[in-house]
Write a structure and sequence with these properties.
Number of helices: 1
Number of strands: 11
Strand order of the largest sheet: 1-7-4-3-2
Number of domains: 2
CATH architecture of the largest domain: Sandwich
Structural class: alpha+beta
Largest sheet: 5 strands, antiparallel
Low-confidence stretches: 1-11
CATH topology of the largest domain: Immunoglobulin-like
Length: 163
């Protein structure tokens, strides 16, 4: 089940975009740069006047996350210090859409759609952006533990035979 949780953060984070829509600058950021299923993704939204750069007071931000034509999350957030930050966990890898709609009371101020590519849960990107399969790492660690355990048992049996 997807997890959603408000958090405290600000800034553009690892990736995102600044989009001008109807004279408003929507500052959207997220981290990590390459979201992966079953891992937390931090999202941050700010709304600014594009001409002045001043924050726009809004009463709520409605977010919908969808996979194809299926909505998998929809909810409203109240801003804190003129921005909205939350944590979301995508349930599986794939292509997702995100709609952000800023409100002043019941009136829509501005709306923007975004697209996400989410990696499978068994994969992540290293600092050099090369693909590492986590299941291969886990298998290697399990084999190492088995080898160390067998070595311990064999050395213990040799000590008993010497006695």
């Amino acid at each position: 089940m997807p997890m959603i949780m408000p958090i405290l953060a600000a800034a553009h984070l690892d990736a995102g975009s600044d989009d001008v829509v109807n004279g408003f600058l929507i500052d959207f950021g997220y981290a990590p740069e390459f979201p992966a299923a079953l891992n937390n993704t931090i999202m941050n939204f700010n709304l600014l006047d594009n001409a002045t750069g001043n924050p726009i007071n809004f009463t709520s931000l409605w977010i919908r996350i969808s996979e194809g034509n299926k909505s998998i999350f929809a909810g409203s957030f109240s801003p804190s210090n003129e921005n909205v930050n939350f944590l979301y966990t995508f349930p599986k890898g794939g292509n997702y859409g995100l709609t952000a709609r800023f409100y002043n009371g019941t009136e829509t101020i501005v709306e923007k759609d975004y697209e996400f590519v989410v990696k499978d849960a068994s994969m992540t990107y290293a600092e050099d952006k090369s693909l590492i399969r986590l299941d291969t790492v886990y298998i290697g660690l399990i084999l190492l533990i088995i080898i160390l355990f067998l070595g311990f048992i064999l050395s213990r049996n040799k000590l008993r035979k010497k006695e």
